[in-house]
Amino acid sequence: MALRLEPAQARKHPLTSYENALADELEGIFGGGVHDLAGVVAALNETGVRPPDGADWTAASFTAEIARLGVKE
Length: 73
Fold this sequence. Notes:
- By secondary structure, the protein is an all-alpha fold.
- It contains three helices and no strands.
- The protein has helices at about 15-30, 35-45, 60-70.
- The chain is globular.
């Protein structure tokens, strides 16, 4: 099975303020050495960025949101 990388960096629209804020927080979290799902979720919950429903992040909501944002346009 051939794998193909189809990066989402070439979006057809500019990022929203929410997408930019989430990306900035994730960059800081990863840059701080946190790379496991539980750690990323805990760190996101310490920020002002919330999932679209406004609740705290969970492993399920984080993975669903990343999957949603990564859908090819």
